[in-house]
Amino acid sequence: MTQLTQDALVERLAAIVGTDKVRTDADSLETFGKDWTRIYEPQPSAIVFPKTTEQVQQIVLLANEAGLALVPSGGRTGLSAGAMAANGEVVVSFDYMNQISEFSAVDRTVKCGAGVITEQLQTYAEEQGLFYPVDFASAGSSQIGGNISTNAGGIKVIRYGMTRDWVAGLTVVTGKGDIVRLNKDLLKNNTGYDMRHLFIGGEGTLGFVTEATMRLARPPKNLTVLVLGVPEMAAIMNVLHKFQSGIDLTAFEFFSDKALNKVLARGDVQAPFETETEFYALLEFEAETDAKMDVAMQLFEVCMEEGWVFDGVISQNETQAANLWRLREDISETISHWTPYKNDLSVIVSKVPEFLQEVEAVVVREYPDFEIVWFGHIGDGNLHLNILKPDEMPKEEFFERCAGVSRWVFEITEKYDGSVSAEHGVGMTKKPYLHYSRSAAEIGYMKAMKAAFDPNNVMNPGKVIDMD
């Protein structure tokens, strides 16, 4: 195996992508060597910007030859350190692989380079009279390749599913340096193993996604938002069940009073109504007709009569709908001031109330000085637990104490047959806790797949699983 000096490394990479597409300056190493997590310090050796699948292949072949470790970099919006380069890795950025091509109105598909921004695809779909439904707060900066590699979910999963439900075909470069085109964009293809689904959610550990054919949908009509004040978590589940019995929801979100108060304190948005409750639910649905709106109002009245809802407000136009969504979508940015320790958990929907109650009881009991903020995609069983750092506490001490919290939280998650990572991936931060959601047999098979696709462990090593 060839060992390269730093100068030789840069020279070899430049021979593949061009001198202007390799960076080693301190600012680039800092920027491209990390994601949104703040636990690890970025320490990459170089950043390389390929423009084609073939260039990615050449980089992977060089990595195998020289024993390099590669880390993929998309929009760097991840929350599990899946795109962290903390050990001298070469970062492969897909920023220049951002072309949209081969749109088919008949198939409702479009081909995207891995570096296409999520919002860019959403806008393109809208221009074609169609809709790309996977949506979340980081849509303006996250990239399709990263979304696929983490199987991104977001706010409309209850109606449209996860990213994997919209991937018609993939082009990937495996850890061996093979270019493989998966599924060929077919709707029906029962010819053995569908390997798309190994790379979707694989966090770049088996290979790098370089291109994807994404499916599109018809655009929703007259999306209407309803925000409800709810006295307790069990009541939220009653509201969900009641509304789903009468209309198809496109979103069903929740947030706690603490989350709402943090957002309101910024002064950018107003409270939805005067009544204060412990929890809030945000529902979105298509009000295509007056009859559909009448059904929604009837369901709301039933929830009020049953005592499940204390107050509510409904949007009358797009501007009001967007402002109501901000009550939920502004939470992450708002609480970032407190360097939150995030846990992204899921259980089956019916178990959410008792699960949340049990988790909060443990955290409050053990760490009464920590403030807890809950929100999430409750319609699909996904809860975001955010523990806020006290202003006077050093970051290192805070994260160390939160590690103890995580163990207790994940033990409860295991008890409820849940997942320690609903949509943020495993990366480095969740890797020590993978066994709470995956059996020893499953982890063994995951390692076997990693060895088959990436025998020299050059693709995002140290993420999801360890190969030693």
TrEMBL record:
Keywords on record: FAD, Flavoprotein, Oxidoreductase
Domain (FAD-binding PCMH-type) ranges: 40-219
Cofactor: FAD
Tagged with keyword Oxidoreductase: yes
Keyword Membrane carried by entry: no
Family indicated by similarity: Belongs to the FAD-binding oxidoreductase/transferase type 4 family.
PANTHER family named among the record's database cross-references: D-2-HYDROXYGLUTARATE DEHYDROGENASE, MITOCHONDRIAL (PTHR43716)
Designated name of the protein: FAD-binding oxidoreductase
